[in-house]
Write the structure tokens for this entry.
Amino acid sequence: MSEELWRCIDDYLAERFAPTDTALAAALEASSAAGLPSIQISATQGKFLMLLAQAIGARRILEIGTLGAYSTIWLARALPEGGRLVTLECEPRHAEVARRNLAGAGLGNLVELRLGEARDTLPQLESQPPFDFIFIDADKPSYPDYLTASLRLARPGTLIVADNVVREGGLIDAESRDANVLGVRRFLDLLAAEPRVRATVLQTVGSKRHDGFALAVVR
Ligand code: SAH
Ligand code: DHB
Ligand code: MG
């Protein structure tokens, strides 16, 4: 009952605040046609991330976990002239669909997709200027490592956002042996104890059911 209500409200809000357009709709359709899992953020969440990036004036955005580039398109739209987004993806099939979707959205030149395990591609970014906004959304067991890597690629004021940290309450199951739950629990413990950030978690409901974003600002 409540899940159906959350979805209806999300649809109502998306129609008004995050209406779909040709590029977003084509990206979802191509992703689905290619058999990619439908686990991208919702439209209202995409708009939320876009507004966050815009509000902090992000010029350099890093995304860990591209899938079909649905979230990438939302984030890239927050960039000013001359901005740049680097997105990391390890599945060649996902990367191929994502590249096509980004080109279709007219973002091919703004976005650089790096194919490979994030644990290998992240250290290569240390020679670049720091990122202003980092979106963590790849494999959950590696979230603790992605936090460490993100801090190495950040500067004071960088905003780090991590998706899927509430997991319909899986978060508070101390007995869980689910590797995803263990990963986000460890990630949040590290984040809470990390003196280099100020952080919180925002629970969300909607078409992605009950989940949440961790938000951290580097001191
Ligand atoms: N951000 C996307 C959804 C990402 S789903 C959106 O909201 O639109 C998670 C993605 O991370 C998948 O495409 C998966 O292949 C990728 N991934 C998983 N483990 C990874 C790893 N170790 N390195 C890089 N990418 C990884
Ligand atoms: C799922 C959802 C996500 O947003 C994600 O990043 C990974 C997996 C899921 O619903 O399984
Ligand atoms: Mg996610």
Remarks:
- The pocket of magnesium ion (ligand 3) is lined by residues 137, 163-164 (CB under 6 Å).
- The chain has a mean pLDDT of 98.
- The two ends are 42 Å apart (CA to CA).
- The first strand starts at residue 60 and ends at 64.
